Amino acid sequence: MKKIIILFCFTVSMQTAFAQKLNVDSLIQKITTEKDEDKKLELTTAFYTPGINNDPGYPIEIGLKLLRQSQADKNTIEEASAYSFLGHGYRLLGNNIKALDYHHKAIALAEGSGNFSLLSIAKLQMGHIYKDRGEYDKAIQIYQSSSNDAEKGKNELIKAWPLGNLGSVYLATNKLDSALMYSQRVYESHLRTKDKNLQMLAFVNLAGVHSKMGHGPLAITWYNMAIQESAGTSNTRYLNMVYSGLADHYQSIQQTDSCKLYARKAIESVSQTPFFYLSSKPAQLLAGIYENNNCDSTLKYARIFKIANDSLNSSKANQQIVLMTFDEDLRQQELVIEKIKAHEERQQNIQYILIALGIVTFLILFFVLSHSIIINGKWISFFGILGLLIVFEFINLLIHPFLERVTHHSPVLMLLALVCIAALLVPLHHKIEKWATAKLVEKNKKIRLAAAKRTIEQLENNQTN
Fold first, then answer.
1. Interacting residues of 269 by C-beta distance below 8 A, sequence separation 6+
2. What is the pTM of this model?
3. What is the mean pLDDT of the chain?
4. Do 219 and 211 meet the contact criterion of CB atoms below 8 Å apart?
């Protein structure tokens, strides 16, 4: 009988796993066939279910499949999304170095795509690393940037995600007014979108805010709602967050027994999972409680804290993450400089185009007027010289940046090049000036003379009549 039960459980689990993989494959197929970029991105957000936060292998599987497909399709949105999923999976495994590398790739691709919602997701996922590590100033900076990008996009769900994480960070830094504002906005977004991730994040954040504000019964209500939503699911990370929050709450009101109960539950919820590193905070809490009255328990939880903390914050990993963060900050600064430079070049090109149009318009007017009796030879000579000066100086203006690049800004080489150009342009300028003005003045004189003859003939005819 026992063998039959085991076989039945194995069969069910295999069918569940197969169905999950089939769902991944079918959804990726839909993503690749969708032509509209915003709809394609909306389909990728369907993967961000509570399950993706509780099984590191799931986002890695999605990322690898989507990456292979993106390389076949040569699609930036698919590729950037794939790197975000891979980074998410490795972060859940506690490998922040590899996760950060993938997130940097995702951000670089998203920046090139011009899709603000995609860029928001890429930044959001990277911000989680700094939040997990307690680098809250950096996390706030990234989440705010993600929120700004999301507001420029079209996806409503993506607009809510950075707000929830900003609420978490402000709660951790005891900025309770900001934490409450963002958490309430996330809860309102959950009511509209019915997104489970938003729901759990809103429950935990609101519970924590009310706990720190001294609203004990309200805080317990929110924590119980979070536990009810997680009951019967595999949301181990959220359960750990809820139990850790409850342990902190009971410690703050000096209910030590309840504090110990929920701290232990927080550790147990992740003890046999890849999320063991989340035991660090509750283990530290328990070690502090037992420090003065139970040496065995103190050592036990201090050991758990050390193992969990070392897995996430080893000195070597910290150094590497600092270097990677510095490199990314430097790349972002260079990107800002490039954007400013591109904007200046665009403005300069517009000015060149306007100058060229002005010169063409001036020349057309000059030739039209020179063939009329409106202006005389002196004006033609003056405007002819002026026009030639403008044309030759404009040519010099266009050549100058090219000379700077070729000569590498060497004063000696620049001087020699300008002298050579002047040696060619000055004689050419004089020849064209003499030829053009002489021809045009002579032509104008003939036109004026012909006009004068016609006028005299008309006057004579009038007198005869």
1. 236, 239, 240, 243
2. 0.64
3. 78
4. yes
